[in-house]
Structures are given as C-alpha cells and as structure tokens.
Amino acid sequence: MSHTALIPSHRKPRRNASKTALRAGVAGGVLSTIAVAGAAGPAQAEPVTQTIEMPTITSGLSTVVAESAQATQQVAFDLEARAQEDAAADQAAKTAKKAKAEAVRKAEAKAKAEAAAKAKEKAAQQRASRATARTTLSVSSPSTSRGSSATHATTASSPSSSKSSNATGSAASIVSFVKAQVGDAYVPGGTGPNSWDCSGLVQAAFRTVGIDLPRVSQNQSVAGTQVSLSNLQPGDILYWGSAGNAYHVAVYVGGGQFVGAQNSSTGVVLRSLDYDRPSGAVRVL
Asked: Are 229 and 280 in contact (CB under 8 A)?
C-alpha cells in the first residue's frame, strides 16, 4: 500500500461529458439570442411623438358668464323691488285702517259730545226759565213784611236786589242762570248741569243768550272790553289774575255781588266783591 493511499485527493471530480455538452449548448443559445437582439436593436423605429391641439372653448365663455351674472342680478333686483312694494302696500293698508278707526272714534266722540252739549244746554235753559219765573213771581208778589220796619230797612239796604232788578234782556238771563246754580258742586272741568268749574259756569251762562265764550278763564278774561271795577254792570265777567292770564272768573250780578264756582269746599256761591276782590272785568254784552 502506498503511503499516500489514505490521504484524500484534492482534485476536482471529472464532469460528465453529457452534462458538459448540455451546458455548452444552452450557453451558446443564450449568446446567439443576445447577438440577434443586439443586431436587431438599431433597426427599431423611434417612438412617435405628436402634439394634439385641443379646441379652445374659452373665447365665448366670458360673455356667457357675464350675461348670466347680469341676468341673476336683474332677477335679484326685481325680487327686492317686489318685496319693497309688498311691504309698502302692507304699511299703507295698516295706516289706512288705523286712520279709519281713528276717524270713526273721533266721529263717535264728537257725536257724543254734541249730544251731551245739547242736553246740558237744554237743561240749562230749563233751569234758567224756572229761575226767571221764580224771580218774576217774587217781584210781582206783594211783600208780606212791608209793615215791618226792620224788614223794610233790610230790603232797602240791599244793593243786590235793587241793582240786579235793573238788569234787562241778555244780562237778566245771564244773572238768573248763574243765581239758579248757587249751591251746585264745584268739579274741575265741570260744565253742568249740576257741577261746574268757574269758566264752565260762565260759558254756560252766556250760552243761554247765544254767546259762545272760550272755555278757559285765561281766554274769557279777554273775551270782551275791559271795564273798571267802579263801573260794573250786571252780566260783566270778573276775573282774578291778569287779563289773558286769569286763574279764576265769575259773573257780576249787581249790588256789589258776584256768582262763581269757587272751589270744591264751597261749590257755586253768591259773594260780595269784598269777600274776594277781583283783579279786573270785561264786558261782553
């Protein structure tokens, strides 16, 4: 046995001849394919590039958009105008309805006021007629106390009875009316027939003879000719305060006396001028 027999050999094993031929054939085929491809490569056509022009559609688009915007704006204006017209019509209808209701209310109030004024005037005329009848009866009847010197002296010393009897015509009617109201209540704003304020009584008295005086004392104090307190006649209007700014009025009835609706405590009273000296007087008759 050789001394190298147990040492493994480092030689590569021999390849099988069939395998070697197969591998050579495959490699040759691959190389042939590559060669053919390389030869055919330069002959291929270059890729085709072509620019396609798209049709332009923006040339008329701005006009269409503008027309559409204008139409939309016009529709908005029309809607707004119609809304304003509708609102104005509603407001006009409400105003007309309110005005009609106010006119009806005023007409009803006026009718009531006129009816009340006529009723008051009629009542005042009736009372004035009764007062005139009583005054006539009292003047025509003989005095039962003529024999009594005391009573006669009292009657003779009473300037009221002597001077008021000198009132004639309209003045007599006015004096009779206000005297008939003595004892009635005083009510602010009262115009009768059973309650009065100062100017309401004066106005009603002159209305019995067809004279329509202003309603308030300020205007009544300048409704006629200013006269001196030393030259008074029955039927003159007395005022307290200043002419045009009076705060109280009454009617002079003669004999240094007046009748007036003084206040809520006294009502309508007959008083002497010395009781409350007036500031001035005006003559309407």
From this structure: yes
Strands 245-254 and 237-242: antiparallel
What Å distances lie between residue 125 and 103, 176, 204, CA to CA?
A: 32, 11, 10
222-251 pLDDT, tens digit each: 999 999 999 999 999 999 999 999 999 999
**Angstrom distance (rounded) from CA 215 to CA 198:** 10
Query: Which pLDDT band holds residue 184 (cuts at 50, 70, 90)?
Result: very high
CA distance 278 to 224: 16
Q: How many helices (H) and strands (E) does the chain have?
A: 7, 8
Q: Which two tokens stand for residue 162?
A: 């002597």
CA distance 284 to 141: 32
Q: Which two tokens stand for residue 20?
A: 């070697």
Domains, the chain: 102-133+168-285 (3.90.1720.10)
Among 18-27, 34-43, 147-156, name the most confident range. 18-27
Exposure string for 185-216, b = 16+ CB within 10 A, e = fewer? ebbeebbbbebbbbbbbbbbbbbbbeeebeeb
* Angle 252-258-260 from CA coordinates, rounded to 5°: 110
Q: What is the pTM of this model?
A: 0.45
